[in-house]
Design brief:
This protein has two helices and eleven strands. By secondary structure, it is mainly β. The strands form two sheets. Strands 1-2-3-10-5-8 form a six-stranded antiparallel β-sheet, covered by helices on one side. It starts with 11 loop residues before the first strand and ends with a strand.
Length: about 140
């Protein structure tokens, strides 16, 4: 039997360049590697480039704000209460139009957790190199395109 109570103030927190704050609420270690759940706060203008995941579904639930998504060949704006799902090998990107708050769920867990931990080490002044991008593919099966 497993259970866990996560207090937001005690969650593993990562500060990414452009002001994003992402907390890992549930990790693979917590869920027998079934799911990871992240609480992300994105300031206006924060964005993720086009990328895709080989292994996991990525589900975005927008709590507040507005986020412009690109998913494959479609672009749209998600608002509070909207849900966006991008499965394995589906290209996606996003950009916060307003300060936004969302839950991001990845299943199975694992790759995205490691990616968040690694990507938080980079800044606009110290961006990932091509070698780093190759490492993301090898370690996490996440491709930045």
């Amino acid at each position: 039997m497993r259970y866990k109570h996560v207090k937001a103030s005690n969650a593993e927190r990562h500060y990414l360049d452009q002001g994003e704050i992402t907390s890992i609420l549930a990790s693979g270690a917590d869920t027998d590697h079934r799911v990871s759940i992240f609480d992300s706060k994105l300031p206006k203008g924060n964005e993720a480039p086009w990328h895709f995941h080989e292994l996991d579904d990525e589900i975005f639930y927008l709590i507040s704000g507005e986020i412009e998504f690109g998913v494959e060949n479609e672009e749209f704006v998600a608002k509070a209460g909207d849900l966006v799902i991008a499965g394995p090998n589906v290209k996606r990107r996003f950009k916060a139009i307003k300060d936004s708050h969302l839950l991001v769920i990845n299943t199975p867990s694992g790759p995205s957790e490691g990616f968040i931990r690694d990507i938080s080490k980079f800044t606009n002044d110290n961006p990932p190199t091509e070698l780093d991008r190759q490492a993301f593919i090898e370690k996490y099966k996440i491709h930045i395109v």
